[in-house]
Amino acid sequence: MFIAQTSVPTLWLLIAVVGASIHSARSRRLTRLEIWQRWWAVAALGCGSAWMTVSFLLIPDVMTTAIGFRETPFVTEIAFANLGLAVGGFRAVHAGRRERITIGLIAGMFLWGATIGHLYQSFAHGNGAPGNTGGVLVYDVAIPAVMIILAMRSRSTDAQVAGEGDGRAA
User: Which is nearest to 64 in space by CA: 53, 54, 75?
Assistant: First the structure.
């Protein structure tokens, strides 16, 4: 049961990888790098954070139990911080390189800070709850790191994205 519970956050990473892999194999219009950036932004950061938003708002007791914390009014703040990350992830789909790096850094500040908190709770207080260790650590570290790395590898996404939609630069 622990493996199933701790693996839930990594499902968003898996969806991003599978989606980007399939899309990359079939697309002739976008570069592989652009496809991977978009899938990572939408599935991993956007949908993953939206899922966290809904979960912390609708089932806060389940979330705090899974993390190993007592229920606290801060779950609402965590929900809305995740909503901000979700908006950033969805915005990153049509963003340029610099904006994607910025969105990745913003996500990193929250998620890497959460990682430090999870590790502290684990080592200092023996909190081995499924929502405090395992998959959530992979999720919290990987989401912003991969987003930043992909954006840094992008050379001219701005020009490609500007050629879509209404013709304005992103």
Answer: 75
Does residue 27 lie in a domain region? yes
pTM equals 0.86
Report the alpha-carbon distance of residue 132 to residue 109 in Å, rounded: 18
Asked, for residue 113, whether it belongs to a domain, the answer is: yes
- Cα gap 87→99, rounded to integer Å: 13
Domain membership of residue 48 as a residue range:
2-162
Which of 6-10, 24-28, 102-106 comes out lowest in average pLDDT? 6-10
Residue 170 lies in a domain: no
Assigned domain for 60 exists = yes
Return phi, psi of residue 119, to 5°: -65, -40
Contact 90, 42 (CB under 8 A): yes
pLDDT at 72: 85
Number of structural domains (the chain) is: 1
**Assigned token pair, 39:** 């899938």
Q: How far apart are CA 66 and CA 104, in angstroms?
A: 26
Length of the chain: 170
User: 167: alpha, beta or left, given left = phi > 0 and alpha = psi -120 to 50?
Assistant: left
